[in-house]
Predict the 3D structure of the following.
Amino acid sequence: MTLVLTLVLAIGVFAPLSQAAAPTPTPGASTPGGETPTTTPTRLAPPSATGENPADRAMAKMDGGRRSTSDQPLPEPLAPQVPGLAPEQQPVAKALGLGAEAADAAEKPCNVGDFTSRTGSALVQQIKSSDYWCINSLFKIGLGDAVNAFRESQMVSVAYAVRDAANSYQGNDSGSISELMLYLQAGYYVEFYNEKVVGPYGDALLTASRAALDAFYANPRSRDVTPDNAGPLFGATTLMDSTQDAGHYLPVIRRLLNDYDSAAWSRANMAWAVNPVFFTLSRGPDQAGYRAVVNADPGVMDALFTFASRNHDLIGTDLGPMVYNAATELGRFMQYPEFLPKLRPYVSPQIAQSSPSGPSKYVRGTLTWWALHYDKGNCAYYGICDDPAKFRAANLTVKYTCSPSITIVAQALDSTQLGAACASLTGQDAFFHAVARDSGPVRDDNNGTIEVVVFHTDFDYKVLAAVIFDISTNNGGMYLEGDPAAAGNQPRFVCYENKWASSFEIWNLNHEYTHYLDGRFNVYGDYDAGQVQPIDWWVEGFAEFVSWSYRKAVNTDAVAVASQHTYKLSELFDTVYARSSQDRVYRWGYLAVRYMLEQHRSDVDAVLAKYRAGDWDGARAILKTTIGTRYDADFDSWLTRCAAGACAADTPGRPQLPECAGGDVRQLGANCVRSNVAATTGNYAHFYLTVPAGTKQVKITTSGGTGNGDLYYNPGSWAYTNSHVFRSTNPDNSETLTVTNPPAGYVFFGLYAQQGFSGVSVTSEM
């Protein structure tokens, strides 16, 4: 087995990532162009509708499996990309100069007992005699074995073995140093996400890890620019990040940045071996004492500036992301006021060399964000005072009116994609209202339109959306509600195309749209108004529930966690986004909301009545006192049924309304449906409804079938295209009309066939 092959998975590329809780959103002060500020409050989307973003999973391997809990909203450094490889296969393959043939690689499962049953030198020898592919599988070790494989005493033994191998390092893997470092990376990864199981790592391992890496970097062969050194060096720079000890390694980081020669390192398959140092730096601000160390040794800022300047011509090439990474880490130091005098003459020329459009926009974008946040008073010095507006004008060039209430603004969508997105959004209205059973917008909510902003890739979102909208982008999308009571407020949600899907898809499109509808029809006021009591179980759980159910898709990740019985229902009512894992917020939120809707609908209606009125304490009393722990045992039984297949229905939780009574197919009733409605092109399907006195709202929705029917309303006589009060004219059969305070007696609706339709369902609710 050659060194190159054994290193393809040197940092656990295929190991799954259980993401840490996403950082709290950082609100902004204004939007571009002098618009009314709408960047707060916010509602987040999950990193993925089907699990973690594969690109994030790949990045986690590139950075040693860590995820930052920093509140810095800009993305972490970029991991490399290889055309033809799945995202999770990218990082190490690219780092070693491998191509798409790496996609054929497969893990070699280990006999876990070979590691859990050995300690000390016996464990070290077992690791040395094992295959990389085998060790890589330990990133997915079962929790029952994790403590015996990776408890601190085991890790200390392996770290000192790395030190011994480093002292005699010959510039290649003859001493199995790469296998040993991989084992340490796996241990750090597993402990990071399962500290309660593995036990915390302390000073003993920190001392041993420092000894190991110090010995490696002290060996002059670690500076060899050869293919044989590529893998061990990459493993060492990755392990450096795993230790979360950035301050200690600043001299090494400075050396690596200064030694880097893109041409020579590329010829030696070492081009990406320096990249993990940017991950190490990105986590530095989270670590105790880091700021003081940088104050004592600020030379790393000189090295970052020199690296970015010397390699500026790499922008637009495969290695360009490292220039972006260097610029990002240079900008990150701007959060410390004492460094600003040193940084200004470094940041300004980097911005001047870049543009709001073209390949250099990411470098300018990241530096603009840092400068506007931490040195805004000097924005003229950098020439960036109006950069948010410039970035929007240069990149969000597509505008499409989807419906009277929905506008899509995009970076690169074509007409077919715009039509598909529009149809998905407009078709969701009827489903949402059928589930929510609302009575129209909540009091003081004037958010009658939504702007849907779609970036071309997740990275465009992470960098460009941060600059344009001044938001946190360490997430899967964001709904910016603003103040719904303010005149001129423009709510919007910001998302991106899913480039790793097999066909066109916008990531979290329906989840984010649910936030808009939920905020308008179910939750009084803005997002912050509801945060006086825990409400995120509903806000995120309901968005997940509607998104999955409307799309008739099975939430397989939620089904999987259901089998673990991790939480009681009463505990889930206490979920707070900022203090909870992604699983708890999104997957368990979905399960809690689904259970309550399916099993205890009247309780949901009671809670929603309080949410709609802004009575947060009243809602909390229902959840924690009226309900309390009464449903915990039943919820636990329901989870068992869910995991066994009950949650795998094609239309989970989809409300079913009865067929309208009476022989006249034109007659509608309260909360019923007329199915299989049809009309030929240019003709109508007419309907009437008897409205009792005092009715607050009548809602008519159409869905399904073929063709295109437009919906019209008239209160006094049959509704036609030239005789109506309201209309809904979407490009398919997904139409909704809501009439508030309708007159008592007969009201009329007409479904006009712009294109002959059949199989349409017409639902009436009041």
Q: What stands out?
A: Confidence is low (pLDDT under 50) at residues 1-73, 81-107, 650-654. The longest strand covers residues 745-765. The radius of gyration is 29 Å. The chain has three domains: 1-17+56-243, 399-646, 672-765.
